[in-house]
Every structure is written in C-alpha cells, then in structure tokens.
C-alpha cells in the first residue's frame, strides 16, 4: 500500500515511536539492570535489521526473490576485513593502496565493493526470472563463498581476525554503547533513504514492475534497468550491514556468505512482514531473540524452527508488522 | 596424461551423480512448477539409511535396498504433507517452506546420528581396481557409479518414450493444462513424480556414501551444483540435465586439476597455485554465467 | 500517397507446426479506426503481441511511422507512441486508480531514475494524471484501489492507461469483452472521440460496435488476412461470409 499521511494510522505511529524509544533507551536501561551484554546483542539485531530491510527492497518491493543476499553482506564484511588486515600487516592491498583502519574510508569502500558486485550479479541474474532467478542468485552467492574459502592469503575457511574495531572520527566505537548508537543511526539513515526511495518515481516503477512486469513494459518502461538499480542499492545496504558486522565481531569468515545465511535473512523479512519498511526490523529482532532463547534451551533448536517456518509460510504470511499495526501491507 | 584421463573419469563420475540429482529435480520443477530446496535432504536420507543398514548387516546391497524405498517414501510423505499446499503458492513461499524442511531434516539427522560424520565402506566386491585402459588402474566402485548412472539414464529414456506414464509426465512438463485435459489423475501423478525424483536423489546419496563423509548438510553442497546443472540444461529437460551434468562434472573436476598448471605458464608457482585454486572454485559458476549470457533459458529450454 | 501510421508486410509467426500468422500484410491510415475480426484462434492476439513487441515475428516487417520497428523491444515501441490494452484486464490491482494512471503518465515524462522526491509531489505528473483520469471517465474513482473497481471500470482503466501516454496508435484487444450494454456504449463513445487524432487497431467480437466504429475492417482466418475493406464491403464479401460470418452462425 502506498504511503500517504492520511492513512498513517495512530496504531502504527504508536508502534514506531515505542520502538524508537525502546532502541534509544536500551543502553542506559541495560546498564542500570546490569545486563550489559544486551547492548552488543542488540547491536547485532540492528545490523541484521539493516540487512533485512535491504533485502526487502528487492523482494518485498521489487518482487525479485533473491536467495543470495548474504553474499553482499559478506562482501561488505570482507571489504572492511581486507583493509584492516593490510593495515595490521602493513602490507599493500591492490593497486598499490595501503590498508587502513579508518572507518571513513573502509566503510564506504565496503559499500561500493558490495554494490559493484551486486550490479554484476544482478546484470546476469536479471536476464532471467522466476525459478531461474532464485537458483542463479543462490549459485552466485555460493560461488563467492567457495572463492573466499579458497583465498588462503586471507585465512581461507578460518576467516580473518581483526585486532580491533575501526577508527570512526572522534567516536570510540570500541566502546559497545557508542558502537550500538552508530548501528542505530546507520539503520535509521538507511530506513529514511529506503522510505524516500519507495515513494519516489523510481519506487513507484519498481513496485509496478513487481505486480505486472509485462504491463510496465507495454507502458514504456525498460524494467530491467530499474530492477538492476534496485538490486544494486540493496547490495549497497547489505554491504554497510556487513561492514558493521565485521566491526561488531572483529572477525570475518566465508560463513557469512553461505546461502543458509541468505535464507536466515529472508526468514527475518518474512517474519516481520514483506513489503513494509519497518517489518524487517521487527523480523530481525524476533528471529535473533527466538534463536537466543531456543538455543539456550536446546542445541537442536532448528528442529523446531524448520516446521515453525513452514507453518508461518502456510498460515501467517502477514508478518509481525501486519499483526501489530493491523495494516494491510503490499 | 594418465592423470588427465583419471581426472576425466572422476569428472564423469561427479557428472553422473549430478545427473541423478538434477533429473529428479528438473522433473519436479517441470511438472509442478515448484522450487524444492530440500531435494538435497533426500540425498542425505539415502546416504544415512544406507550407511546405517550397511554397518549393521555388513552388506552394501541390503543398505541399498533399504535406502531406496526410504528416500522415495519420505519424499512422497513430504509431498503429501507439505508440498500439496505449496503448488499454488508463489515461488517465495516455496523457497521459505523448503528452507524450513532443510533445517528440520539436517537437525533431525544430528539428533539421530550425532554430529560426527559416518563412514561407509566400499563393498568388498567393488573394492579393487580395474585397468579399463592399459596402464590406468581405476577404482571399480567409481566405474560402477558411472555404469549405474548410464543404466538409470537408459531406463528413464525408456520410461519417457515407451510408457504411458512417461508420456503423461513429458506432456505435463511441456504443458500443465494439457495433462488435466487428458483426464490424468494429477494428484497421483504429482506424488509419483515426486517419489521418482527423491528415489533418484536417494540413489545418488547411497552411491556417494562410500566416497564422501555422510554428515548433516551433505545434501546442500551437491544441491547448489545441481541448480547450476538445471540452469545450464534448461528447466524440465532430462536431456539438458544429462548433458549439463556431465559438462559441470568435467569442468569442476578438470578446473581444479588444469587451472593451476595452466597459470604456472604465466605466473610464479605460488601465485599460480593460489589463483588457480580460486579460479577453479569459480569455474562452474563462470560456465553458468557464460551460458546465461548466451542462452538465458538454458541449453535445452522446454516450451511452455 | 496515403499517410500510414502502421504498415505490416508479409508477417510470419509459427508455433511448431501451427502458423499463427501467415503472410499477413496490413496498413492502418492515420486517425482511422481499423478493426480486426475473425473467429477464435484466428491469431488476432498473436498479431497484437507482435505489433507491440511481446513476440518477435519469424519474418516480415513492421513499419511504425515509416520506421522499421520489427526488432524493437516493447518499451521502445511504447515510447515511440504505441499504446496497448489487454484482452484480460491488466491493471495494477493493489494500486489506486490514480496511481495506475500515474504510472502510465510517468513513463512518457522522461526517465524515472528520480530517487528522492515523492512521486506524488511532482507537479507536471499530477496535472497530466488528472487529465488522463478525466478523459477515461474515472476521475471520481481516483482513490479507489483498482481491485475493488467493477469489471467495466477496470476495462475503462485498462484503456485509460493505454491512452494516458497519448499514443499515436492504440492497440485495443477486445475492450468491450464482458461489459454490459451500458459499458459497451461508453467504450464506443470513448473510441469515437479518438477518431481523427489517434489511430486505433481494434479487436472486438461485438459486431455492432465494430461496424459502427471501424473505417476499415480486416478479416483474419487461420492467421491469414482474407479480406480488407469498409464495413459494407466486408458484409457483402462472399468469402468472408463463408469463412467467418457463416462459421459464427453454425456455432450459434
């Protein structure tokens, strides 16, 4: 459903403001409660929320079922990983460039790196549609997984450890609370960008293409280009999420690109509500909380997650956002 | 040169495995227009059941006889419980639900068999080597895999060209409305095709047992290659699956063998080996990309 | 020399052994309504698909404003001024009437790589959208979600979207299908108004509408054009009566 101020329900407003307040107040409250691990746990949630929102741009709004989004997430993480690694080793990266631990260089690098690869993968995959598209995005993301496993110079299968988080201007992001707020701001900025995007002329074209591509073409839209740009923007978003995750964990590994990781991000989008901007944030929170709780209870929690997922798909596709706001989403 | 021929045989053997996987999957795609990420799970079920029964009884054949129906029946059961509800859903729902199935099956095998991989012995009557070409000893078990694969391909060919059921399946792959119009019991046909597909996946899993480690998640690594095969061959085409499977098997095997030595001609040895390994890991995907640029619907697109 | 907006010559298209379009030639004069009639399965929709680029013909040429567009992709043809409505209503069900029309308008107002400004605040688009809604008689329904329109209104919207791009040639595939007599009349009026400005290729089963609207009629049987002429000529053509009108009576 298109955004329109008059349709902006009170219930939705209350939900969003409550959510924002909760996220803003989380660090002080958890330090009072002496539960400081919550801050880093929620940083992870915010990072995954960012990745899920970017995936929703292609799936929920663009109707492109990509099963390779984790590749761009992982590439973003490695973007930071490469630069930090060469900085630590004092060796040259490619084309005579040195490594750096400056986030103002390495994070944009990660974003551009992911976007560029998304553009290439998208250009190839979008020549097809439907089942082919799903299989091809999956295959290409696995290609990156195997490629990074084979890169012995960067730790191969074992991944890369970073000695510390990046430098970000005057902010000390090695402090978990500061880093938390950096993640929160990143997410909010990306949400705002996505919100503008979805309601712009471009967004309208992308939504129209999802619903009826043939009609869009007979109206005069070269839909391929619009889909490709949408795919690339989503890749950039995932790249930022990856850069943040590399800093959060101070570690990157090919496992980030594994296709099951793509599947998990997709599940977050589904749980939260497809085709909504805030749904995926809720979905990321629900998924990671569920994982945390179930995993504490049994190591075999996935045996429950699998059937749960099937039931959600078959009977409750509205997602959490739809349930909480009562809004019909697209 | 000897090594090269041996690698070609290895490539063929991988191709045969991929054919068994992709033949079933491409049929399921073709007829039901459904994407099944969980196809690898039936490969895994085949391998686990065969490994377990073989280790209890000491007989590979008994393992085979137990695992084949296990794969086919579990496939038909899953079709009845889950897939029937997915036929009229969009691909996204199918992806998510079958992803759920993978998580379930992988974890279930961990609960039943634990996290340690099982190992399965090559049956003693196939544990020697033969010199198919003088001077090149080759394990007879791997030759047997190639032989079985060729036999299956022949049987499938006869099934599709000589039997009524096969004709119906082929007609269905080309045009779904047509089989309904012909008065075929589609529900039954769907279940049978699903069972046939998972039977083939199970067979691949059983034969892979003695070569690879039998462990949870083993289905997914072959599943991705199977997808590559289907994309290259064209969805719904058995012929395409056969040719693409052999192609992918050969490229994957020979890439790892040839690329490093090829690059050594231009680059220092250490760099060449590293870059060669990286390129080799990407070779089948590059093949897929090239074919996509050339023929977006695969080498043998099925009309409809 | 006549002024043709569309010239099709020796078009061929086969699906396996079936010749869907068989050596078909056809000219449409600027500003005229040209009807295409023929029994079911005669290849009418297949022809439309080739004209607008959804299908590429096996051989033959299509000239649009004397430009060879035979190999052009769909969007390019649309931007050159070819509008199309669909046999099976093809509107964006989940969008409002206004958004449907706006999408059609927007396609002809430069590229849509505008990422930041809300589309609803682009003034030129708004005005053109309002006009287009007025023209297809759906202004009062602007904020209705398309899926809750009546069947007739949906057909109107479908044609309205094709018209919103101000096409030089409009391809209408059974615009009156499933409409009541009131709706058919409205649609007939709408097409009547277009005469002189917009050329129309009309596929329609409603013979009354065809004979009252069409300047020229082409009869298509098994992918072949067996006759072209005015309404009177077609009605009196013995070959047409045998192949088509007679056929229709047998079915009735």
Summarize the entry for a quick read.
The complex is a heterotrimer of chains A (330), B (304) and C (252). By secondary structure, chain A is mainly α.
Overview of the structural elements:
The complex is a heterotrimer of chains A (330), B (304) and C (252). Chain A is mainly alpha-helical and 330 residues long. Chain A is built from 13 helices and two strands. Chain A has helices spanning 10-32, 37-61, 69-89, 103-125, 130-150, 176-199, 201-211, 213-219, 223-249, 259-272, 279-297, 302-315, 319-325; strands spanning 160-161, 251-252. In chain A, strands 1-2 form a two-stranded antiparallel ribbon. Chain A is globular. Mean pLDDT of chain A is 88; it is low at 1-6. With 304 residues, chain B is an all-alpha fold. Chain B has a single domain (2-120, 140-294), classed as ABC transporter involved in vitamin B12 uptake, BtuC (Orthogonal Bundle), CATH 1.10.3470. Chain B is built from eleven helices and two strands. Chain B has helices at 2-32, 39-57, 60-81, 91-113, 140-162, 164-174, 176-181, 186-208, 218-233, 238-263, 269-294; strands spanning 129-133, 136-139. The relative contact order of chain B is 0.19. Chain C is globular, with a radius of gyration of 18 Å. Chain C contains nine helices and ten strands. Chain C has helices spanning 44-52, 74-80, 97-106, 123-135, 151-164, 181-194, 207-213, 231-236, 238-251, and strands spanning 4-15, 18-29, 33-37, 59-64, 67-68, 82-85, 169-173, 199-203, 216-221, 224-229. Chain C has one domain (4-251): P-loop containing nucleotide triphosphate hydrolases (Rossmann fold, 3-Layer(aba) Sandwich), CATH 3.40.50. With 252 residues, chain C is of the alpha/beta class. The interface between A and B is large, with 46 and 46 residues.
